[in-house]
Design goal:
Helix content of chain B: over 70%
Number of domains of chain A: 2
Number of strands of chain B: 2
CATH class of the largest domain in chain A: Alpha Beta
Number of helices of chain A: 10
Order of helices and strands of chain A: HEEEHEEEHHHHEHEHEEHH
Oligomer: heterodimer
Largest sheet of chain B: 2 strands, antiparallel
Helix content of chain A: 25-40%
Strand order of the largest sheet of chain B: 1-2
Chain lengths: 265, 327
C-alpha cells in the first residue's frame, strides 16, 4: 500500500483507527477502524443504535472518542476545534435536518460559505471593501448552488416552511457550500418517498462525479446504499461486522443475522 | 445576482421611512421647546442602548438583564474622565465604548457556559451589584460616592447658532445614526449571519465553521460598547451621574424597551427609547398615585396589541422586513 509513488495517493482521505466511544459505561463505538479513499462513496449501515451517528459526531468533533485516532488527509482531526472541522474540508448534514429554519434558503447556504472566505467583524461593521468582496464571493457560491440543486423558486423562502425533501436538499446545498472534500450525509433519505430517494441517489452520484469528493453515507434505505456505494461498512452494537463491495456485504451471514436480530428486538 | 432577487418593494418602503425619519429628526429641535428637545435626546440615548441589546438578544439570541450596568460603566467612565482627568467630552464616547467593550467581552467569557434564563440571571446580578460598587468607599475619590459627579453643560462648538440642548440633541443624533449604520452593516454581513446562525441552531452553526465562543463574546462586547456609549452620552446630556440613577430598574427598562420596539428589528430601538422616556410620564400625568400601576397597564395593553413589538406590528402591515432574515 505504501509502495504507491505519489505520497498524496498513499495517504487515505480519512483514516479512522481503533476508535471507541462510551457513554456512561455503555459502549457506542468499539474498536472501529476503516479508511476512505478520495472520490469514494462509502455506505455505512447498521440497525438503530449501532453507532452510525456516534461516528459522525466524532468526525464533527461533537464527541471525543475515549480512545483511538482519526486523521483527515493525514491531519489529526481530534486536535481540531468544532469550527475548524469544515476548514479541513469535512462537511456534513444531520439526521434530523438541522437547517436554520427561520432563515431563507439563500441565507442558509450563505452561512455554509462562512468558512470559505476570511473576514473580520470590524471590516463588516464598517462595510470595508474587503467585507464587500467576501460578501460577493459568498453570494456567488450560494447562487451557483441554488442553480445546481434547483432551489431557485424557493431561494427567499424560510427553510422551515418547505417540505422535508426540500429541507434536506437545502441542507445538502449548505454542506456543499463549505467546499468539502469529505461529505458526511446522515440519513439523507430519511422521510423521503421512493421517487425522492432515487432522485437523491442520482444527485449524490453527480456530486461525486463532478466534484471528485468522497461521501460517507449513513443510511437505512438499503436500496439507496446498495445502488450508489462503492463500498459498504456494516455496524452492529458499535462494532464493524462487515466491510466490502455492496454485493458481498448483502450476502454476508453476520449482516443478515444482525439485521434479523435488529428486526426481532 | 442571477437567481436571487430581493423584494424591492420592502427595500423602498424602508428607504423612504428612513429618509423621512431623518428629515423629521433634523427639523424637530427647531419646532419644540428646549425641554422636549432634552427628552428627545434621552429617547435617542436609550435607543442606542437598546440597539446594542438588540444585537445581543435579537440577533445572537443571548439574554441580558444587566445592560444597565454597562450603561452605568459608560456614564461613569465619561464623568470621571471629564471631571478627574479633564478629557474633552467628545473623546469620552470612544473611551466608554472601549472600556465597555472590554468589560462586556470579559463578562462574555464566563457567560459562554450559561444559556437562556441562566444568562439572564447572571447579567441581572451584574445590574444589582452596580449601585453598591459605585458607592464603594475605595473608589469614592473618583465616583463621588453617593453624591455622584456633576458636570458642566457643553456649549455648541464652532459658534454654531444652536442652544445647548439643540447641540446635544444633534450630537446624540449623529452618534446614534453612526451606530445604527454599524449595526445594520454587521447584521447584513458574514458576521451578522454567523450570529443569527448561533441563535437559530448553535450545533449546525458550529458545523458550518462558526466559532461560537468567539462570536458570542464578540457580540457581548459590542453590545456592551453600545450601552456604554449611551451611558457616556447620558452623563454628558444630564450633566450628572449618581449610583441610584443606575439601579436595576434601568436594566429592566432597557429590556422592556427592546421588547416593545420589537426583538430583532433594529429601528424598534427608537420606539423602545420613547417608551422608556414617555410611558412613565404619561402614567404620572393620568394619576400620580397610581402611576406605577398605569405603567403596567400601558405595558400589558401594548404587548397585547403588538405581541412582537412595534417591529412585529409593522411586519403584519407589510411595512417592515422580517427580523429573522438578515436581508
Amino acid at each position: 500500500m505504501v509502495a504507491a509513488t505519489d505520497k498524496r495517493e498513499a495517504t487515505p482521505l480519512l483514516s479512522v483507527d481503533d476508535v471507541a466511544v462510551t457513554f456512561g459505561g455503555i459502549s457506542a463505538l468499539n474498536g472501529l477502524s476503516f479508511e476512505m479513499q478520495r472520490g469514494e462513496i462509502l455506505g455505512l449501515i447498521g440497525p438503530n443504535g449501532s453507532g452510525k451517528t456516534t461516528l459522525f459526531n466524532c468526525l464533527s468533533r461533537f464527541y471525543m472518542p475515549s480512545s483511538g485516532r482519526i486523521h483527515i488527509s493525514g491531519r489529526d482531526l481530534l486536535s481540531l476545534r468544532i469550527s475548524d472541522v469544515v476548514r479541513c474540508r469535512v462537511g456534513r448534514t444531520f439526521q434530523n435536518v438541522a437547517a436554520f429554519a427561520g432563515l431563507s434558503v439563500f441565507d442558509n447556504i450563505r452561512i455554509g460559505g462562512h468558512a470559505r472566505v476570511g473576514g473580520h467583524a470590524i471590516a463588516d461593521a464598517l462595510r470595508l471593501p474587503r467585507s464587500r468582496r467576501a460578501e460577493q464571493a459568498i453570494n456567488e457560491v450560494a447562487e451557483a448552488l441554488i442553480d445546481e440543486l434547483a432551489l431557485g423558486d424557493v431561494a427567499l423562502t424560510p427553510v422551515g416552511a418547505l417540505p422535508l425533501a426540500r429541507q434536506r436538499r437545502v441542507e445538502l446545498a449548505r454542506a456543499l457550500a463549505t467546499d468539502p472534500q469529505l461529505l458526511l450525509l446522515d440519513e439523507p433519505a430519511g422521510g423521503l418517498n421512493h421517487e425522492e430517494a432515487v432522485e437523491l441517489g442520482a444527485l449524490i452520484k453527480t456530486i461525486r462525479d463532478t466534484r471528485g469528493i468522497s461521501l460517507l453515507l449513513a443510511e437505512h434505505h438499503m436500496g439507496l446504499v446498495m445502488s450508489i456505494s462503492d463500498r459498504v461498512i456494516v455496524l452492529s452494537f458499535g462494532r464493524k461486522i462487515a466491510d466490502g463491495p455492496p454485493a458481498a456485504v448483502q450476502n454476508d451471514a453476520r449482516v443478515i443475522e444482525a439485521y434479523l436480530d435488529g428486526r426481532a428486538a | 445576482m442571477s437567481t436571487v432577487t430581493q423584494s424591492k418593494g420592502g427595500e423602498r418602503i424602508a428607504a423612504y421611512g428612513g429618509a423621512t425619519a431623518i428629515a423629521l429628526a433634523l427639523a424637530l429641535p427647531f419646532a419644540v421647546s428646549g425641554f422636549v428637545t432634552f427628552q428627545l435626546t434621552q429617547v435617542m440615548i436609550f435607543a442606542i442602548a437598546i440597539l446594542g441589546l438588540n444585537l445581543l438578544t435579537g440577533i445572537s439570541g443571548q439574554f441580558s438583564l444587566g445592560h444597565g450596568a454597562f450603561f452605568a460603566l459608560g456614564a461613569y467612565a465619561a464623568a470621571i474622565a471629564i471631571d478627574s482627568f479633564g478629557l474633552h467630552y467628545g473623546l469620552t464616547l470612544p473611551l466608554a465604548a472601549l472600556i465597555c467593550f472590554l468589560v462586556g467581552f470579559l463578562f462574555g467569557l464566563p457567560a459562554l457556559r450559561l444559556e437562556g434564563i441562566y444568562l439572564a440571571l447572571a447579567t441581572f446580578a451584574l445590574a444589582i451589584a452596580t449601585p453598591p460598587l459605585l458607592k464603594f468607599s475605595l473608589v469614592e475619590a473618583w465616583t463621588g460616592g453617593v453624591q455622584g459627579v456633576f458636570l458642566a453643560k457643553p456649549a455648541p462648538p464652532f459658534g454654531l447658532p444652536l442652544s445647548d440642548d439643540q447641540w446635544l440633541y444633534f450630537l446624540t443624533l449623529a452618534v446614534g445614526l453612526a451606530l445604527y449604520w454599524v449595526a445594520r452593516n454587521l447584521l447584513e454581513s458574514r458576521t451578522g449571519r454567523a450570529l443569527i446562525a448561533i441563535r437559530e441552531h448553535p450545533i449546525a452553526a458550529g458545523a458550518m465553521g462558526v466559532d461560537l465562543p468567539a462570536y458570542k463574546t464578540l457580540i457581548f462586547g459590542i453590545s456592551a460598547a453600545y450601552a456604554g456609549v449611551a451611558g457616556a452620552l447620558s452623563a454628558i446630556v444630564v450633566q450628572f451621574v449618581a449610583p441610584d440613577s443606575f439601579a436595576f430598574w434601568l436594566s429592566i427598562a432597557l429590556f422592556v424597551g427592546l421588547v416593545v420596539g420589537g426583538v430583532g428589528w433594529l429601528p424598534g430601538a427608537l420606539v423602545g427609547g420613547a417608551f422608556i422616556v414617555f410611558a412613565p410620564n404619561i402614567a404620572e400625568g393620568v394619576s400620580k398615585g397610581l402611576s406605577g400601576a398605569l405603567y403596567g397597564v400601558i405595558l400589558i395593553v401594548l404587548i397585547y396589541l403588538m405581541p412582537a413589538g412595534a417591529g412585529g406590528l409593522l411586519r403584519q402591515l407589510g411595512l417592515a422586513r422580517g427580523p429573522r432574515s438578515s436581508r
